[in-house]
Write a structure and sequence with these properties.
The chain has four helices and 47 strands. It has 659 residues and is mostly beta strands. The chain has six domains: 89 residues, Immunoglobulin-like (Sandwich); 98 residues, Immunoglobulins (Immunoglobulin-like); 89 residues, Sandwich (Immunoglobulin-like), CATH 2.60.40; 82 residues, Immunoglobulin-like; 97 residues, Immunoglobulins (Immunoglobulin-like, Sandwich), CATH 2.60.40; 107 residues, Immunoglobulin-like, CATH 2.60.40.10.
Length: 659
Amino acid sequence: MFSSQQQLKMPRKMVVIFGVSNVLWMVFAVSQAFKMEIFPEHRVVAQIGDVISLTCSTTGCESPSFSWRTQIDSPLNGKVRNEGTKSTLTMDPVSFNNEHAYVCTATCASKKLEKGIQVEIYSFPKDPEIHLSGPLELKKPVTVTCLVPDVYPFDRLEINLLKGNDLLKSREFLEPMDRKSLETKSLEATFIPDKEDIGKALVCRAKLNIEEIDFEPKERETTKKLQVYISPKNTVIFVNPYTRLQEGGSVTMTCSSDGLPAPQIFWSKKLDNGNLQLLSGNATLTLIAMRIEDSGIYVCEGVNQVGKDGTEVELIVEEKPFTVEISPGPQVIAQIGDSVVLTCGVTGCESPSFSWRTQIDSPLSGQVKTEGTKSTLTLSPVSFENEHSYLCTVTCGRKKLEKRISVDLYSFPRDPEIEMSGLLVSGNPVTVSCEVPNVYPSDGLEIELFKGESLIESKTFLEDMDKKSLETKSLEMTFIPTTEDTGKVLVCLAQLHIGEMEFEPKQRQSTQALYVNVAPRDTAILVSPSSILEEGSAVNMTCSSNGLPAPKILWSRQLNNGHLQPLSENSTLTLTSTKMEDSGIYVCEGINQAGISRKEVELIIQGRENNKDYFSPELLVLYCASSLIIPAIGMIIYFARRANMKGSYSLVEAQKSKV
């Protein structure tokens, strides 16, 4: 290319030639480099109400011009913005009027390019809606509607309605579409609720089945949990203490009503004009410091989502001319078994009459004493029957007043008791029990067991108490004692944790020293001179046995029937002049608290050989002396039987014991 000054210096003919060549070159360049792109390509899918932009851009042309049109020459229904080599058509919001094929035309000099893009629309903007014709009342038909709003095209819509895992109803909307519009489609089903439906869910699932275009989501779902209702009924009122009250007194009225869900209780007072004045939304209505104007009709209604049921009671409040005080205060804390004295005093009345009762009208289980303007209720000993709120009612003329005092109980009367399952025998498992008797309330009890200074077991009793009773709670554990445990101390520590009640003691303990026994063993018998003897000989049989404590020795003789005949408790059994009848099995037993160890020995007595078969003078002398000796022997036998001689054995005495 030449500059403008260079062109001025050229001959006119040359300038014309160059000018023509320049134009031709530019036309050639345009024809070669002018290109056009459109985005998105070919097709765009948009939901009604969204915003979309179509962009047309060129290359190879510095200043192209753009134009947009629909293929059927309908209005664009969008805004065009051109910037340099780019043109944008924005549709905000997209509507049915934008469902066309759009054409972008770009012109550069004499060159014109066109490209088209198809805009397709749909509408599936919201999850389905589940509507019930009313609350789900037991055994009453209800209609559920599954509604899918603003759908297009609706001829591709499918709705499924499920209850739990069961399909209630399904529908496809295949009818032809006579016009383009957003349609709200619905599916209805009727069923009768029962108790099995409680907790189940209704599921409405909608699908827009347009496979040829890509969009998300193609399926929407809504879940609604079922609540089955039962209309309130059986509404009743309980009044405590009475429907006729003294001014300044109090009354508690409790109302209950059956239904599902549990009805909410509303208390109202009926006004003179018949309207109801709402008082409370609680089941219990307590009126204190009542006045004369509090007299009237009180209405209780049980209300839930499907209905209501009511009943009423009339209260009469009379004047109060006097005052009543009860002591020791509004609350008494006492240990079971103690004595409690409740005192009711009156001022402002010279001759009152008193009556005592529990707030739940159970027996007083106490003794009442009245003197003048004072009445006492003595609970001795106090027991579970007395754990109530007590009411002292004072009547003065035609008027009454009441005062209340609550008696709260506990029981922690004795130190723990330590028990063993048996003797402590070295090597033998033993179970130790730490027992805390007569505890109340037992859910606050903690027991710890120590051996020496070491904690070996602990237990807390946190279970709920289903009844009022004195409970004996225990902690058990098993260990194997050794002789090294002798001298140690078992400590059982019990603590009653009841923080809101003040009492003493809250901790008790017991101790027990350990002594470990060793069962008898190594029992042995020593016979002197021998276990085989001649008749008339003496024999000593000595028994020994090891153990802790030292075993006690018991000698017995085994009889023919297998039974044992006790003979002696000495370690040595002496037979001074044996006879053949003394032959037999002798048994020694070593015995202590830990066991028995047994040893046997057989004693054999043989007869003497007789060498003299003639009469001798010596025999005559012996015969004469026998007349004196026999009475003496009789006396000896008599005193021997009375003396309980230990350590000697006489066959004569043994034979007498058999008779």
